[in-house]
Amino acid sequence: AAPAAMASPAASPDSSSHEGPASAASAPAGSPTSDSENLSPDELELLAKLEEQNRLLEADSKSMRSMNGSRRNSGSSLVSSSSASSNLSHLEEDTWILWGRIVNEWDEWRKKKEKLLKELIRKGIPHHFRAIVWQLLSSATELPVKQQYSELLKMSSPCEKLIRRDIARTYPEHEFFKGQDSLGQEVLFNVMKAYSLVDREVGYCQGSAFIVGLLLMQMPEEEAFCVFVRLMQQYRLRELFKPSMAELGLCIYQFEFLLQEQLPELNVHFRSQSFLTSMYASSWFLTLFLTTFPLPVATRVFDIFMYE
Fold this sequence. Notes:
Transmembrane segments: 279-302
Helix content: 55-70%
Region (Disordered): 1-45, 58-84
Keywords: Membrane, Transmembrane, Transmembrane helix
GO molecular function: GTPase activator activity; small GTPase binding
Order of helices and strands: HHHHHHHHHHHHHHHH
CATH class of the domain at 143-243: Mainly Alpha
Protein name: EVI5L protein
Largest sheet: none
CATH topology of the domain at 143-243: Helicase, Ruva Protein, domain 3
């Protein structure tokens, strides 16, 4: 099993239908990519609206922080904040309508509007749509293994003690997982145990519980189990968690070359200090950044990972 200190983001699925990790990394979620050139005027207008929504959210957040942190605010601050909220509500309504349409016409969007869908996901999947969109992206909605879930929970797994030991260390500050008898800890144990029975070669490995925990924050345990199965098998995350951890070694090796190519001075400095890549980057791959970034940021990374 991986060391407990290891934590977060991810090797990308190795399949012709997915892009490599450098693709997502090289274009930040908030930036238009070269794909924008192929979009229609209506689609470009839509993306501009979403960019404006992100800007207003940030401005509104800053304004509220400013009001809470200082007594010197004039009435105009309240007005601008109110105005931003008003504009935001219209954009949020547009976003809800749009994502509702995407979910209902999923197959068409995947086949005919792939570039636009990619841009929209990079700008962030709305919270209330994440559960269904992640299931659709991973093709986990109709997995046969879902029917086995209740039976798997009745069985015993050789990994149960290990899983129980680690449950309390997974998102210890998050309300859903706080407390030994919390619902979050119980369903997290269930999903990890069920997977250890389905994939006996991997069984249970530290780090994977953070991924399952994030899924459980979005959806019920049966659905979370199915998405996790797809992530491990179709997105090849299980290769990172195999006992030899050879795939993790490969990811570290590839990352070292990227570091050498993109940030040569930093690479030389790290080497001079004997600061090995595995000391800090192992956790990125094993938990898809979930123990590295604040949860809202890590969730946005996860949105992109699920698609790309």
